[in-house]
Specification:
Strand order of the largest sheet: 7-8-6-5-9-12-13
Mean pLDDT: 89
Strand content: 25-35%
Helix content: 25-40%
Number of domains: 2
Structural class: alpha/beta
Shape: globular
CATH class of the largest domain: Alpha Beta
Radius of gyration: 20 Å
Low-confidence stretches: none
């Protein structure tokens, strides 16, 4: 009837603890578009994400903030998510993520502290826990940092959840910064995927990420060396290519 009459219908379904639609997938197969509203309970920001769209792209997201009048669109999410970055504390870096086709700058915070138990804790908020433990192991093996007796806590500010390897280098640098208690300059953006041997691998949409950093007034970007060689556009940024995590740490005074 809805198709015959041209009526737009919204069906709301239950979700599981993992955030997927509960029960058989009949609901997803039946509809033209599936939208998820994501966000933490105690944060005002919500991300509207399309995971299925029969008549358009699923590569777009919208960010909204809950106000008295309801959900209001956030026109510049990057500026909002890093606006409360106060001072220049150790363990805090800015990373560039791609959500759909939109580049977002996010603040990534790491805290290392002496473990009081025999087994050190690893805690990740906003990124994959297993990715954190893997990168801590890479730091120990390839950069010689002693983290076996340190609790490591990681937080992606703003209640945003990101599952993208381009944040790897930011996680590594933030963790090393906290351990050594050395601050990273406020005008630096860090981008790159880290492999198990400590190499920094290329990421996609690098020029879009750099444009977002330039637009918000950042001066320097640490990116994979392979990405730097393939850049077609010119930027006002000081772009530094790094082959491995040691190179990146030396650029930032951590080695």
């Amino acid at each position: 009837m809805c198709k015959q009459k041209g009526i737009t219908t919204i069906i709301i379904g239950h979700v599981t603890k993992d955030g997927n639609i509960a029960g058989p997938r009949v609901l997803e197969h039946m509809v033209d578009t599936v939208l998820y509203i994501e966000g933490e309970r105690y944060f005002a920001y919500r991300v509207l994400r399309s995971v299925k769209n029969r008549f358009g792209s699923t590569n777009e997201i919208g960010m909204f903030e809950m106000e008295n009048s309801g959900l209001v669109e956030v026109s510049n999410p990057s500026e909002l998510l890093i606006s409360e970055r106060d001072g220049n504390p150790s363990g805090s870096v800015v990373v560039a993520s791609i959500e759909g086709t939109r580049a977002l700058l996010l603040e990534l915070q790491a805290l290392t502290t002496q473990s009081v138990f025999g087994l050190p804790r690893r805690n990740a908020n906003g990124i994959d826990y297993n990715r954190l433990t893997l990168l801590v192991a890479v730091l120990e093996k390839k950069a010689g940092l002693m983290l076996g007796n340190q609790d490591v806590y990681l937080n992606l500010v703003g209640g945003i959840k990101v599952n993208e390897p381009a944040l790897d280098l930011g996680i590594v640098i933030a963790t090393a910064s906290s351990l050594k208690n050395i601050s990273i300059k406020e005008d630096v953006v860090i981008i790159g995927e880290v492999g198990l041997t400590g190499e920094i691998r290329s990421v996609n949409m690098i020029e879009k990420r750099l444009k977002e950093a330039e637009k918000l007034g950042y001066k320097m970007c640490i990116i994979p060396e392979s990405n730097k060689k393939l850049l077609k556009e010119k930027f006002k940024l000081d772009i530094i290519g790094a082959k491995n995590i040691i190179d990146a740490m030396k650029c930032l005074g951590l080695k």
